[in-house]
Amino acid sequence: MSKKEGKGLKSFNKGFQVPDTYIIIFLVVVVAALVVAMAQGIMQVLGGSDPTTPTVINTIMYNISNALSGVSGAVAAVLMYLFQSIFNFFVVSGTGQAAITMPIMAPLSDLLGVSRQTAVVAFQLGDAFTNLIVPTSGCLIGSLAIAKIEWSNWVKFMWKFLGVLMIGAIITILIAVGIGF
Fold first, then answer.
1. Residues 24-65: tens digit of each pLDDT
2. What secondary structure does DSSP assign to 126-145, as a single string?
3. d(CA 148, CA 165)
4. Cβ-contact 177, 77 below 8 angstroms
5. What whole-number distance in Å separates Cα of residue 21 and Cα of residue 14?
6. Domain boundaries, the chain
7. What is the C-alpha separation between 71 and 77, in angstroms, rounded?
8. Where would you find the membrane-spanning parts of this chain (predicted)?
9. pLDDT, tens digit, for every residue of 2-17?
10. Alpha helix locations (H) across the chain?
């Protein structure tokens, strides 16, 4: 057997990592699906299909809108963005996050004088950039593990760039509010 053939046989064993990768991806998708299903279940328990019916979700929206009633639409939209950015640490799945928060954010934006489009922009930007550092992201942690980079070192490397992205996101949201998007 030549050296070339030996290398091929040795590298063949590494091919068994591929099924493990598919299993990990499958589990990530299953977790995301479960988060969406649980969010729908929570919304069923809390109510929220009719804004005139007394339900838990309507009480939450009413109290949040009262607390934020004195702020401008621009401040409310930025607060929505910051909330989504923080919430992304707990629910990394964009679909799961949308299923949980948008049933609250959409009517809340109506009450605060922020367009629903701007609320969606705040959600999208809040879900996007923090994915670069959230330790609960299987995709990020898997990528860092493959690259042999510790998460703490990654955060030290990324925090300034993330700050620039977040400032850009806030400017984008302020422009969206300013032009009535």
1. 878 877 877 776 677 667 667 776 566 567 777 778 777 877
2. HHHGGGGT-TT-HHHHHHHH
3. 25
4. yes
5. 12
6. 19-178
7. 10
8. 21-40, 60-82, 89-108, 128-147, 159-179
9. 555 445 445 555 555 6
10. 3-14, 17-46, 56-67, 73-87, 94-112, 116-128, 138-147, 151-178
